[in-house]
Amino acid sequence: MTTSPNPSPDLIRQATITRQSAKKLARTSNQERQQSLLAMAAALEQSMEGIIKGNEIDLKQAENQTLQSSLIARLKLDREKMINAIEGIRQVAALPDPLNHRQLHIELDEDLILERLSTPLGVVGVIFEARPDAVMQIASLAIRSGNGAILKGGREATISNQVILKVLHQGLTYSCTDVSTLHLLTTREESLALLNLESLVDLIIPRGSNQLVRFIKSNTKIPVLGHADGICHLYIDQEANIDQAITIALDSKTQHPSACNAIETLLIHEKIGHVLLPKLIPVFESYNVELRGDPTSCTLGIIKQANENDWSTEYSDLILSVKIVPNINEALAHINKYGSRHTDAIVTDNLTTANLFLDSVDSAGVYLNCSTRFADGFRYGFGAEVGISTQTLPPRGPVGLEGLVTYRYVLRGKGHISSDYISGVRQFTHRSLAV
Amino acid sequence: MTTSPNPSPDLIRQATITRQSAKKLARTSNQERQQSLLAMAAALEQSMEGIIKGNEIDLKQAENQTLQSSLIARLKLDREKMINAIEGIRQVAALPDPLNHRQLHIELDEDLILERLSTPLGVVGVIFEARPDAVMQIASLAIRSGNGAILKGGREATISNQVILKVLHQGLTYSCTDVSTLHLLTTREESLALLNLESLVDLIIPRGSNQLVRFIKSNTKIPVLGHADGICHLYIDQEANIDQAITIALDSKTQHPSACNAIETLLIHEKIGHVLLPKLIPVFESYNVELRGDPTSCTLGIIKQANENDWSTEYSDLILSVKIVPNINEALAHINKYGSRHTDAIVTDNLTTANLFLDSVDSAGVYLNCSTRFADGFRYGFGAEVGISTQTLPPRGPVGLEGLVTYRYVLRGKGHISSDYISGVRQFTHRSLAV
């Protein structure tokens, strides 16, 4: 089934301990979990210098190995990043408790009361590259939501991650959360074996490149929260406000080109192309964006031709493919064919066209007259982002703490048995009660 | 990755048509989808005799092949079953619309409004054994929730399923739903290939034996709604009402022994075993239940000894394993080790013990002083049951129409771009609006 190795007895033992600690954590109060996060934040503050020194060892190693400068930038933990990460933990502590929400409350019959309550998932497995700040963020999200976490960072951040986890453990000793709730894996074999720990790990969260996510999705039966691709589109309708369209296109492409919610393809209605493109091309040139056009848009000023591969490429860079379409249906068909169901937007002043687009595009986010860059848990007001999911089933789109909880049905009776309802001695009332 | 064959061009073409029809259906009104169901019900009523005749051909074939009598009973479609199935479709039509619920409504900033709306999944793949009534039920659930369905029934019901689908298609011609929204596969190769149609099928629903579900789960990357095992426990605490405990145990085991929510194991606190068992044993004997006990319960009157396999066996029959435990923690440990996270119950009059159990058991359903047989979508008041899920992530437990929908984020702006919020020119308001 998978290429992953079988988990070693030691990994199984450790994951079992993490699971038991998580079960204990699941029964703690909101205040206790909040206090655990504050204790971690305080420990990080106290040991900030030590963490930065540990990180410097990783950085030196990375420089010696002449790793990519973008990777080194992500790896680096300076005072500012540490202060932000610690502030982030305090913000997660301040979020509303995701546990023990009563989502349903139904009287099935007199004295037979059904509740649906939010509960933690159990244990999450988190596999990430570079960024050692991810350890702090994930640890706080997991504990806030009553979950254990088994973490595996990139090799280049080994020392940083180990020092951070040691400090987080130190902090947790001043809380009611067992230190074994957070466990760090150190070898690649362990992280591969983690993907086979179906009975002990409930969710895998990959943080890293599309290649990493794709590899993980192909090698585990455990549910994966994440997305391999972010091919987002912006469609500029014939009834668009031209200045607004250019501003939105520019923001969607250039504000953070390597983000998954940046656009890769611009679709333009043929009736507006000859007015829009002569204005848009110089603006995008001034932002160093390389435009790659279909034959029609190349007749309107785009120099470089797009090929078939362009429509399904996530550039993650200052490159944008452009296509002229004869009508909205062709735009919808293009998005349906090449999109990754992440986030797609339309610019139009026509309400009917807008609604047709918003109803027809089968993506996690469908936007009207705004930038695709809003597809983000913080911008949506969730206070945290566990990941962005492009799967069809919930959770979908940007996922906050909600992605780390599930629910349980609790039914309380007074000797109720099913045969009474089958024989007709008793009848269900199915009365909704206040949640 | 899987043993399933690649989908044929014909299957891909057909699934694409079903997906397109489903997209069209997704945009229809509640009334239109209700009318589609009523049109199917009317067509079935009109063609009832023809369906029963078709079913008789399958039945004769099954008798010639001397198939199991329980299978023949499930295969048989008589007038009564048809009337019930048609009534079922009308009930599904009358359920509240699962689509276009506004689950979230947030003002991100002035004129930048985020909604989360429930939407159909797209296309569901349904693989079922015997029961041709499943075609009618699944068809109605799928269309009610705006989804297409690709169905594959057991070989023994080939004619029945084909006749039913033909009649459903006839009905749909009197509605706005395309007939191609419902597609029936006829060969085993096609149903195996269906499991590889990741880009066209959003959810697989298996209806049948544990073996079928296990096979499907191991051979697809498409999410599967279902459960392979239902090993449910009842724990009788030392402070249980003895008569209530026996009544609940009896109902949980015997009311429908082959159901997944029937109990397989009874755990009894050692302090109550010597009083409970001498009363329980004759009652269970009178219901022809074979008890298999651990060594201690065998000293208290149970004749047959249980072996290690018994604790992890779903008998689906009138057999019950019994174990005496020294305390609730041992009961919890047993359930944790052998359970399938389906439904587990406790009988006790002690509230602290009850809450410890309800908080600690990590199953989709945790029950106090009532039968495990209540774990059912109809009994929960959902009006329909798509399946029962034992996975950790939602949807979990009995799943109604909710299991056939997902959601989409719709964001409407007036030229809003992300860089304004990064530069600080604008601030998010994140104001909750009425849902």
From TrEMBL, chains A, B:
EC no. given is: 1.2.1.41
**Which keywords belong to this entry?**
Amino-acid biosynthesis, NADP, Oxidoreductase, Plastid, Proline biosynthesis
UniProt pathway: Amino-acid biosynthesis; L-proline biosynthesis; L-glutamate 5-semialdehyde from L-glutamate: step 2/2
GO terms (molecular function) for this protein are: glutamate-5-semialdehyde dehydrogenase activity; NADP binding
**Pfam families documented for this protein:** Aldedh
Instruction: Output the InterPro entries linked to this UniProt entry.
Output: Ald_DH/histidinol_DH (IPR016161), Ald_DH_C (IPR016163), Ald_DH_N (IPR016162), Aldehyde_DH_dom (IPR015590), G-glutamylP_reductase_CS (IPR020593), Glu-5-SA_DH (IPR012134), GPR_dom (IPR000965)
Domain of life, source organism = Eukaryota
Q: Which catalysed reactions does the entry list for this protein?
A: L-glutamate 5-semialdehyde + phosphate + NADP(+) = L-glutamyl 5-phosphate + NADPH + H(+)
Task: Kindly give the CDD domains that the UniProt entry links to this protein.
Answer: ALDH_F18-19_ProA-GPR
Q: Is Phosphoprotein there in the keyword field?
A: no
**Can you give the residue ranges of the Aldehyde dehydrogenase domain?**
17-301
Example GO BP: L-proline biosynthetic process
Q: Its function?
A: Catalyzes the NADPH dependent reduction of L-gamma-glutamyl 5-phosphate into L-glutamate 5-semialdehyde and phosphate. The product spontaneously undergoes cyclization to form 1-pyrroline-5-carboxylate.
The family assignment reads: Belongs to the gamma-glutamyl phosphate reductase family.
Entries under PANTHER family matching the protein = DELTA-1-PYRROLINE-5-CARBOXYLATE SYNTHASE, GLUTAMATE SEMIALDEHYDE DEHYDROGENASE
Q: Which HAMAP family match?
A: ProA
Q: What is this protein called?
A: glutamate-5-semialdehyde dehydrogenase
